[in-house]
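Page 37, top half.
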Amino acid sequence: MSEDQAVAEETRRVPVAVVVTLLTAMLTVVLIAFAWPAARSQPRDLPIAVAGPAQAAAQVKGGLDQAMPGGFEIDPVADRAAAVEAIKDRDVYGAIVLDPQAPEVLTASAGGPAVAQILTQLSTRLAAENPGVQVKVTDVVPLPKDDPRGAGLAAGALPLVLGGIIAAAVLTQRIKGGGRRVAGALAFAVTGSLALAAVLQFWLGSFEGNYLANASVIALSIGAISLTLLGLEGLFGFVGLAAGGAVMMLLGNPLSGLASAPEMLPTGWGSLGQFLPPGAAGTALRSVSFFDGAGSGRSFLVLGCWLVLGLLLCGFAAVRSRGRSVVQARSEASPVTV
């Protein structure tokens, strides 16, 4: 190696201090992304129904606002039947039935175990306000007996994101041609979703409902993520792939609300999470698996938009690549003049 080459090689070397600083910053960002939403988890405008006389409902609302300001959004309903219907339609997470003889708290652990636990705690408050009266707690839409804490569904957010990221990364490295990559991503979305849904539903018992319907939600999520990342890589190279993967992993996963509920996350961040594929997929999975699809319309719309966006990005990347090939071919075919 010549002296000039040695100097150039030494110049290209990154100081250890810079590398350590960058690694520390990356580790800190990852910690904040995953720990901050969980550490700041609490009810924020959590919709619940209150069934009973208007005056009693107003008193309950005042008591909740005083105990947890801004924690709940009260939806007055006529009676218990209306409250149950609102829960099954996913308009509310639970309800308080103000029957003087038999007060009751209605929960739906399938809609969010953390929310159901908070509502169950409200029964203690009602019992304290009504000495001698037993407050009943009823889980209207319970989680499966094989997974009573909903751990499988909560943990499923990570494989959904990783599946899309890994698919895009492998396809860009091993498969040539935009069309073949898109076909590979779509094929993997189908096979991967069938496998994940089978494990979660038939082995772990975390899902209920129609197996193919559950798998279709997972397929939409994996397809939306992988196609979007493929398009970004085709347009911007590794930087596009890395940036897209970081958004899906560091924002989409922790803000999905699968571990609690979107309304339990810091203000604004839960709503943002629902416009990213992991959050939309989580809400759609809960709705399709446990609520006969109620409340899943917006989630499917979000997933569909991401899927279309991914296809458009891949299309733009293919057109640009084809244009470059044509220019290169013309340049090579043109005569060289001396």
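Page 37, bottom half:
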Amino acid sequence: MATVYNINKGINKPIEFRGLKGQYIGYLAGGLVGLLLLFAGLYLIGTSLYVCLPVVGTLGTALFIGVTSLSHRFGQHGLMKYFARQGMPRYLRFRSRRVFTTLKHKRNG
């Protein structure tokens, strides 16, 4: 009896949701959870709904615009590379590989 197997064609492709790739989906989800908690906190302390909804709506819109702009600007792994480059001290930066290729090896023995 023959068995039919489905082949997953997207094995090496990044997770994508409405144009957001990789870690940006997590950033958006975390931001939305934060906005939900902010709304609940404002509502519980007695702030009017006419104040809560515009504040949360404005912050939510800013969150969506900010995360999508970061996703389009840096791509899937570009933001991590950007922060890694910012955190590297200037005296460790090398513009070429010549420093490493001209090193002489000492032989023991």
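Margin note: Residues 83 and 89 are 12 Å apart (CA to CA).
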